[in-house]
């Protein structure tokens, strides 16, 4: 409760909250309403990563991103030529941003130790990773892990003398593009 009072005081010191703060407040209120309407109703202190995933799946019904299923003839095509009956879902980027705002809101209200934050649970991170990979496959766009690129960028830095003016990451992108063609 004390963190919530501090957050309100900080928000009232400026003339109006930022777009991010307003969205974070709306998202937080949506989660609290979801927990209140949950059968049985849940308090925030009893909310777990599994409940957060349940909430994210609930939000899919309001999604606007078509995610092709395996049986769809357009599965794996970035720009399908016709309409299909595949379900609309929340886009991965929207879910990822939502979880980031909810994680921050939980910490601001003084929800406890960071380990007790249900929005930062390992299960939620795994679920988001699966959503990202599923949506990328359905669109036919491979997802390259950034972790694999970082060591290459660090090793490619000494190669800047080879005439590359954009640095290691730009050179790595050019190599990827040339191998795709």
TrEMBL record:
Predominant place of localization: nucleus
Region (Disordered): 1-24, 139-171
Annotated ALOG domain residues: 19-147
Assigned keywords, A-Z: Developmental protein, DNA-binding, Nucleus, Transcription, Transcription regulation
Entry-linked InterPro entries: ALOG, ALOG_dom
Keyword presence, Protein biosynthesis: no
GO cellular component: nucleus
Pfam families to which the protein is assigned, alphabetical: ALOG_dom (PF04852)
GO molecular function: DNA binding
Compositional bias annotation for Low complexity: 1-18
Cellular localisation: Nucleus
Statement: the UniProt record of this protein carries the keyword Transcription: yes
BP-aspect Gene Ontology terms: mRNA transcription; response to light stimulus
Record-stated family: Belongs to the plant homeotic and developmental regulators ALOG protein family.
PANTHER family noted in UniProt: PROTEIN G1-LIKE2 (PTHR31165), PROTEIN LIGHT-DEPENDENT SHORT HYPOCOTYLS 5 (PTHR31165:SF64)
Name of the protein in question: ALOG domain-containing protein
Origin species: Brassica carinata
